[in-house]
């Protein structure tokens, strides 16, 4: 079983598009896709808007997407070709409570791809990709904490014009790591697909 984690330093940098594109590009993996959302203080960490993903008990909810056409991120994963698509919602800092259910879903998956940084606290994936956008100043603590564990860096837009707006983030953490330039709308290149395919080959 292969486990791929796709993270990023902020919202709206292309994480969901990267996941969807990998699902489409590597259909032979029969992916189970996970979207992990944490919320707090009335605002969703997924989009920064007033939170509508807060659970009834304000702690945890796990649901499986059934439609390919609702326009949600989990629906996008199904539309891209995922076998199953699961949305995990927890209060900020309480992802540990969801891990028993996540492990249960992983146990029945052929291969899994998860959109999250924080999941790195609880899983050791076969591959961790991080998406960076120099023009977006926000840098999540979870992305900063795991930046040095990234197997490759996907840099949005033109790397030659990379002038990061981030504060207190050392680029030494990604020195020597494979870096790939990605652009909208697909946020994917053949080089990235080939890299992922090669890294997931059985030993």
How would you characterize the overall build of this protein?
This protein is of the alpha/beta class. The protein contains five helices and nine strands. Strands 1, 2, 3, 4, 5, 6, 7, 8 and 9 form a nine-stranded mixed beta sheet that branches. Strand 7, helix 4 and strand 8 (152-156) form a beta-alpha-beta unit.
Q: Give me the Rg, rounded.
A: 16 Å
Number of helices: 5
Instruction: Report the helical percentage.
Output: 10-25%
What's the average pLDDT?
A: 87
| Major beta sheet summary | 9 strands, mixed
Structural class: alpha/beta
> Which stretches are low in confidence, meaning pLDDT under 50 for 5 or more residues running?
none
**Percent in strands:** 25-35%
Number of strands: 9
Q: Give the end-to-end Cα distance, rounded to a whole number of Å.
A: 12 Å
Order of helices and strands: EHEEEHEHEEHEEH
What is the overall silhouette? globular
């Amino acid at each position: 079983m292969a486990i791929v984690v796709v993270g990023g330093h902020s919202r709206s940098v292309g994480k969901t598009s990267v996941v969807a594109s990998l699902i489409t590009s590597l259909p032979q993996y029969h992916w189970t896709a996970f979207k992990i959302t944490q919320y707090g203080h009335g605002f969703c960490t997924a989009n920064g808007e007033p939170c509508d993903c807060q659970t009834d008990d304000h702690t945890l909810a796990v649901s499986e997407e059934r439609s390919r056409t609702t326009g949600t991120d989990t629906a996008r994963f199904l539309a891209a070709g995922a076998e199953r698509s699961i949305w995990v919602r927890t209060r900020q800092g309480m992802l540990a409570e969801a891990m028993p259910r996540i492990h249960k879903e992983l146990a029945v998956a052929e291969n899994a791809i998860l959109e999250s940084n924080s999941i790195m606290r609880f899983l050791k994936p076969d591959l961790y990709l991080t998406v960076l956008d120099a023009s977006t100043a926000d840098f999540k603590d979870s992305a900063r904490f795991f930046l040095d564990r990234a197997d490759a860096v996907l840099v949005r837009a033109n790397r030659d014009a990379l002038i990061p707006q981030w504060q207190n983030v050392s680029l030494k953490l990604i020195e020597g790591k494979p870096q790939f330039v990605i652009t909208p709308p697909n946020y994917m290149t053949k080089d990235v697909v080939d890299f992922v395919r090669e890294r997931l080959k059985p030993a």
